[in-house]
């Protein structure tokens, strides 16, 4: 009976047709393939150009090995030929009796800047010698008349003639000493600073400082590695927070020696022992820079 019951069990049914969910998935896959094919057609290169043309149309990339078009350096402003420290006469330590100029004054070459306390004594010596010379000349004239009439000997007349020559030489010396009591300006320019006032001795700093501020220069401290690219006549640009607009100039002189850097910037990583060449740049307009001697500036020299 058990065997019969197994035989009487219904046979498994045949596989059924795909369900609606499966058919929807297949339709979605077909739509994805169609969209991908359309995208390929849109992105494919057209007949107007090739892939290589597309690559060549891209902007060129700048090369890092290109040489710079300018040299930059720190620097300072100075009058033409630098600052002159005017001292007193050599020998001894003179005392100022009269100061005839002050800071900011314009002076001419050979103008008296100060008078030393030795002036009265030296002036009196000149006056005394001039009086002695006048008397010696009168005695020489008298001796010459007496010698002509044979009243005075030739030797006596020669003595007075020698006396006159000696006094003339002494007066020249006394006048030279008197001139040393006056301190004169070696150049035309402006008084930048005064180091000794009336009643004070002239020290190591000298009496005062002068500068030709009518012709100002920017002294650019160019690194020794860059100086080979600097040439006379190159244009330069000088900037500072003090200036409303940059100053311009031209390279006027390239020194023949290397020095230690003096102008230091604010960068803590900058070299403090750099070797530089102080290139002189003549400014086109000295009016603004004339009152700013030793101002630190930044210089750009066009190559």
CATH topology of the domain at 70-81 and 212-302: Elongation Factor Tu (Ef-tu), domain 3
State the end-to-end distance.
Answer: 116 Å
For the biggest sheet, the summary is: 6 strands, antiparallel, barrel
Q: Give the second-level CATH assignment, the architecture of the domain at 70-81 and 212-302.
A: Beta Barrel
Outline: rod-shaped
Strand order of the largest sheet: 1-7-11-9-8-12
The beta-strand count equals: 12
Portion of residues within helices: 25-40%
> Low-confidence parts lasting 5 or more residues at pLDDT below 50?
1-18, 45-62
CATH class of the domain at 70-81 and 212-302: Mainly Beta
| CATH-level-4 superfamily name of the domain at 70-81 and 212-302 | Efflux pump adaptor protein, beta barrel domain
Measured on Cα atoms, how large is the radius of gyration? 48 Å
- Which structural class do the helices and strands define? alpha+beta
Can you give a write-up of this model?
The chain has 303 residues and is α+β, with helices and mostly antiparallel strands. Among the domains are: 70-81 and 212-302, Efflux pump adaptor protein, beta barrel domain (Elongation Factor Tu (Ef-tu), domain 3, Beta Barrel), CATH 2.40.30; 119-179. The protein is built from 5 helices and 12 strands. It has helices spanning 2-7, 20-43, 51-56, 119-148, 154-179, and strands at 70-86, 96-99, 106-107, 112-116, 182-184, 189-194, 208-223, 235-239, 247-253, 259-260, 275-283, 296-302. The termini are far apart. Mean pLDDT is 83; it is low at 1-18 and 45-62.
